Amino acid sequence: MNRKDKFSKSEYRFQSDDPLMCEQLSDRLLEALPVNRNIIIVCIGTDRSTGDALGPLVGSMLRDQSMQSFHVYGTLEEPVHALNLNETMQSIHRLHSKPVILAVDACLGKKASIGSIVFGKGSLTPGAALNKDLPAVGDYHISGLVNVGGFMEYVVLQNTRLHLVMNMSAKIAASLRLTEAKRMNERLRNHPYQNFLAATKKQQ
């Protein structure tokens, strides 16, 4: 759970109730994420708190899909949270050479921003909303603003509407699935022969 009181010029902000949101976020993701490198998606949060469940929900929704260019860490079953974040990041760097990391996390902010989804370059700081000292995560980040920050954050998180969190999680997951499809089409256009060989070997 990070904190978002201000938006930088390098960030893109979307409203989760906008019918075009998934397509717009997907376009920004496709533009920013290197097509020829696999992306590690680290979905941060815990299912023990409604407001902080956005990351694990996104992770579980993505784990149900067959994706080739995205690797997902953090689900409802196996969440990435304050107690295992350092260990998870060490494992990622051990298993993946020079990983490009996209961090997904819920955040608290101003009342007018609730329901906003923010994408940008750079890391986010998990636990900042709850004054936890955790390492910054991500080369890129997606933050979902689920509630108001600044006062009694633990109580606020427990009283965040599940409907809002579920809806935002579904929109983020759908945007990432759409991005995956676009990335694979882009790879096929750029390297049709190599992709044909890879698919043939996979079938054997």
Model description:
The protein is α/β, with parallel strands linked by helices and 204 residues long. The chain is 39% helix and 21% strand. The protein has 6 helices and 7 strands; from the N terminus they run ββαβαβαβββααα. Strands 1, 2, 3, 4, 5, 6 and 7 form a 7-stranded mixed sheet that branches. The longest helix has 29 residues, at 162-190.
Provide the fold topology:
Layout: E1 2-4, E2 11-15, H1 21-32, E3 39-43, H2 54-63, E4 70-73, H3 85-95, E5 100-109, E6 116-121, E7 140-148, H4 153-158, H5 162-190, H6 192-203
Parallel strand pairs: 1-5, 3-4, 3-5, 5-7
Antiparallel strand pairs: 2-6, 6-7
Work out the helicity level.
Answer: 25-40%
Shape field:
globular
The pLDDT mean sits at 88
**Low-confidence runs:** none
The ordered H/E elements are EEHEHEHEEEHHH
**Strand share of the residues?**
15-25%
Number of helices: 6
Summarize the biggest pleated sheet: 7 strands, mixed
- The Cα radius of gyration reads 17 Å
Say how many strands there are.
Answer: 7
Distance between the termini: 44 Å
Helix/strand-derived class? alpha/beta
Could you provide a short overview of the structure?
Helices cover about 40% and strands about 20% of the residues.
Task: Please tag this protein with its features.
alpha/beta, 7-stranded mixed sheet, 6 helices, 21% strand
